[in-house]
Amino acid sequence: MIVTRDLTKRYGRLTAVDGVHLDVREGDRYGLLGPNGSGKTTLVRMLLGLVFATRGEIEVLGRPVPRRVGEVLPQIGAMVEGPGAYPHLSGRANLRLFDAAGPGGSRRDRRRRVDEVLERVGLAGVDRRPVRAYSLGMRQRLGLASALLRRPRLLVLDEPTNGLDPRGIREVRDLLTELNANGTTVLLSSHLLAEIDAFCTRVGVMDRGRLVLQEDLATLRRPTGRVVVGSPEPERVVALLDGRVEGRDGHTLTVRHADPAALNAELVAAGIPVTEFAPERRSLEQVVLDMTTTSADRVEAA
Amino acid sequence: MIAVELAKLFRRPRTYVITGLLCALPLIVAIFLATTRVPPPPGQGGAFLSAVLSNGALYPAAAMALVMPVFLPVSVAVLAGDAVAGEATTGTLRYLLIRPVGRTRLLAAKLIALIVFVLFAIVAVLLTSYVTGLALFGSQPSAGVALPADVTSLSGVTITPAGLALRMLGTVAYIVISMLSVAAIALFLSTVTDSALGAAMGALAVLVTSQVLVTLDAAAAVRPYLPTRYWLAWIDFFRDPVLWRDIERGAGIQLVYLVVLLGMAWANFLTRDVVN
Question: Is B37 or B174 the better-scoring residue by pLDDT?
């Protein structure tokens, strides 16, 4: 779906994106993670032909970008850095204008398509108020509606849940999940770990313009080979598993053991009560914190 | 895309506010003239103003002479400066481009919308000032329109109403071309900066500088190439016979400015990173 090779963007002396090899496959729910200022938005803008790369190649839906970006954009729905709308027009009028601006999309079924996407994003009952009177969440929903107008094959969303309340975030996630199940590939960029964690199947982590990690989420969170054991009698566990206990925090112990089932059997056979038992997995947060250095909006003293 | 740009133009209240203001200026002047009947001394004040006292049918030409030097270019510069930079500010530029609207198409549609605005504003001014002129100053008998003495070299020359209409048409065309070169300056700056105000101010700075240099004898060497040098050359349409020399030179210079600046705007917009 999206392949980039050695993609680099420099603004003067600042390298915003540095040698990125992005690979988003058909049907992916790809999460682009990274601290603020790590180059996510610049990368997304390059994919859409808004910003021109200093070096490297981009291929979207099998076509070179930006050379033939006009052919791929009709199949892409996107939201880049917040929604944009004409503040003096209503949400409906905005969608109609945007629909009329692009190629395709006949005038006859425009009204129906606009009503349909408004319904999808939960704005079906929106009235004639101008967009300037909308709340941030409503604008966000409108932006999403605009992205969905042409039933895209690929959705590129930059921080789509910005300004939404928890219920709104959940609704958007459910909507994206449904679209993805129907074959839409989703590229979601966010600095919110929880959002990526809850939705994506594949993540790319950006740090200071570099793509430092690109992996299936399941692989990242595979068991670490350690087991977390909770027991009201931790001393007995330590005595039994002599040397294999690597960490202890009150009644919770971290035990290195290749086979959780065998460990469980061992503990039960020794008559030790077990209140908690789970193979340890690395959290996405841990992975990201390990891979990234610092937040770009942090300014340290020299 | 052109239809979309026109819809945006005519669904914005400011289009009508600006046009209303443009129409209001000649109206105010007409009211003062009609109540006091004090004509400006010949050779001073707006062109045609003393002539309209005897013939209201000439008031559209006088109205053009009133709005042309300042008011009309200011409104064109404001709208053209807003064309691209304004879209960038509302965040709609990127959504138009990924819809997708080709950058060349977008620029062309913006330019056409500007042409339509200039025509709309001029026609509105002409119509309201024609009505004002007839209502406040009355009209001469339909036999013909006497060309004003302070404009024509020979007084007492009369032209037919059809001839007057034809000359007005030439005037409109000339003013549209002049305003388009203003629009081209502002449009170019609008693709350079993301500040609509900055682009409008830049264009006005160019015009003001040009106006100052036109009157400065020390700058005589560059005078023929200044964008505002021949702005009022359309008055020559009301001479008999029509004096084509300045009209032709003026139109030629405006076309050169138009082509060069539009080319610059196009080249800049096509290669620019849209980061807003």
Answer: B174
Instruction: Say if residue A186 is in the same domain as residue A276.
Output: no
Range of the domain at A233: 224-281
CB within 8 Å: A73 and B92: no
> Is B8–A81 a contact, with Cβ atoms under 8 angstroms apart?
no
- Residue A120: CB atoms within 10 Å: 17
Angle in degrees, CA A90, A93, A99, rounded to 5: 140
CATH number, domain of A165, equals 3.40.50.300
Give the amino acid at B161. Answer: P
- Asked whether the beta carbons of residue A98 and residue B99 sit closer than 8 angstroms, the reply is yes
Handedness of CA A45, A50, A54, A56 (dihedral sign): positive
Q: How far is B17 from chain A (nearest CA, A)?
A: 15
SS3 category, A6: strand
CA A41 to chain centre: 12
Does A49 sit within 8 Å of B97, measured CB to CB?
yes
- B178-210 pLDDT, tens digit each: 999 999 999 999 999 999 999 999 999 999 999
How far apart (Å, rounded) are the C-alpha atoms in residues A51 and A9?
9
What is the spatial distance between Cα A147 and Cα A120, in angstroms, rounded to a whole number?
12
Q: Which among A42, A81, A101 has CB closest to B101?
A: A101
Task: Report yes or no on whether pTM surpasses 0.90.
Answer: no
